[in-house]
TrEMBL record:
<dbReference type="GO" id="GO:0006635">
    <property type="term" value="P:fatty acid beta-oxidation"/>
</dbReference>
<comment type="similarity">
    <text>Belongs to the enoyl-CoA hydratase/isomerase family.</text>
</comment>
<protein>
    <submittedName>
        <fullName>3-hydroxyacyl-CoA dehydrogenase</fullName>
    </submittedName>
</protein>
<dbReference type="InterPro" id="IPR001753">
    <property type="entry name" value="Enoyl-CoA_hydra/iso"/>
</dbReference>
<dbReference type="GO" id="GO:0003824">
    <property type="term" value="F:catalytic activity"/>
</dbReference>
<dbReference type="InterPro" id="IPR029045">
    <property type="entry name" value="ClpP/crotonase-like_dom_sf"/>
</dbReference>
<dbReference type="InterPro" id="IPR018376">
    <property type="entry name" value="Enoyl-CoA_hyd/isom_CS"/>
</dbReference>
<dbReference type="Pfam" id="PF00378">
    <property type="entry name" value="ECH_1"/>
</dbReference>
Length: 188
């Protein structure tokens, strides 16, 4: 068996409700509510990444903040070409807290580049996140590291779920191998 994650509407996900966070802050509920939400988010995203069954995410429109992080953690992605992806939290004075920074680092560190290249790549990622850079399309999302070279980009967004279902079925039928957990030595 397998699973496909998708959303109807104009956007995949634009992330957390910042108004709700503001209310929690004003009512002095922020520490408890936010820490619980972040813990659940980390648990969910790690279950997604290390799932024993293939999971394909079909993304379109905007995938911002937590929506971007969900895409980052997805083992397979089918993205409409007109997809705008980014970790935008810094634009409102926050840090991405769903694990997006760690996943971006994991992608860089798991490559076969030299250490110097990895440090340069990580610096570029941090600059993009610091400036809340959003891709202008799915191809730029690949260049920015929000999508992988192995992710599928399609032109007709209406076909994204159909193609994602086919990919999920293919992976389920061809001995899907879950993402292995890795450990790294800190750079520097």
């Amino acid at each position: 068996s397998s699973m496909v994650i998708y959303a109807d509407g104009n956007n995949f996900s634009v992330g957390a409700n910042l108004y709700q966070m503001k209310q929690a802050y004003e009512e002095d509920r922020i520490d408890k509510e936010i820490s619980e939400a972040i813990e659940k988010l980390h648990y969910t995203f790690n279950r997604l990444k290390y799932s024993l069954k293939p999971i394909v995410t079909a993304v379109h429109g905007r995938a911002l903040g937590g929506g971007c992080e969900l895409v980052l953690y997805s083992p397979f992605v089918v993205a409409a070409s007109e997809t705008y992806i980014g970790l935008v939290e810094a634009g409102v004075g926050l840090l991405p807290s769903g694990g997006g920074l760690a996943e971006m680092a994991d992608r860089i560190l798991s490559t076969s580049h030299k250490t110097d290249d990895k440090q340069t790549s990580m610096s570029k990622v941090l600059m993009n996140i610091g400036f809340a850079k959003v891709s202008t399309n799915a191809y730029e999302a690949i260049r920015l590291g929000y999508l992988r070279e192995t992710d599928t980009v399609i032109f007709n967004k209406e076909k994204r779920v159909e193609i994602a279902l086919k990919r999920a079925q293919y992976e389920a039928e061809t001995n899907y191998i879950p993402t292995p957990k890795r450990q790294y030595i800190a750079l520097g």
